Amino acid sequence: MNLPTIVKEQAMTHFPRHRYLLSQRAYEHRVLEEAAEILEQRYVRGETFARTENTTEYLRCKLAGYEHEIFAVLFLDNQHRLIEFKELFRGTVDAASVYPREVLKEALNVNEQR
């Protein structure tokens, strides 16, 4: 049994019946959204980004639905726990302009709010 089949079978046990009627693309998008929410809750509760695999897993689910380039920042505390995930810049299909001053300003704002 391949992974998409397993994911679909697992999703059918967790999602209400009406969601199966969605198109395949919409269904997959919803599954990815649910996975991102689960990961978000895991990291909000204090799991750390100390390992590359954790960061990769989180960002893969978080960014899977985007059809354009974005520049996002993970703000972490000194124990590698998530403070906030913030999308700072949005671009076209293959590029996003990034302004370092705005990144620094946002980092200072997040630090100030803590």
UniProtKB/TrEMBL annotation:
Keyword set, alphabetical order: Hydrolase, Metal-binding, Metalloprotease, Protease, Zinc
InterPro entries: MPN (IPR037518), RadC_JAB (IPR025657), UPF0758 (IPR001405)
GO terms, molecular function: metal ion binding; metallopeptidase activity
Pfam families for this protein: RadC (PF04002)
One GO-annotated biological process of the protein: proteolysis
MPN domain sequence ranges: 48-114
Transmembrane segments: none
Name used for this protein in its record: Truncated DNA repair protein RadC
Organism: Vibrio cholerae serotype O1 biovar El Tor
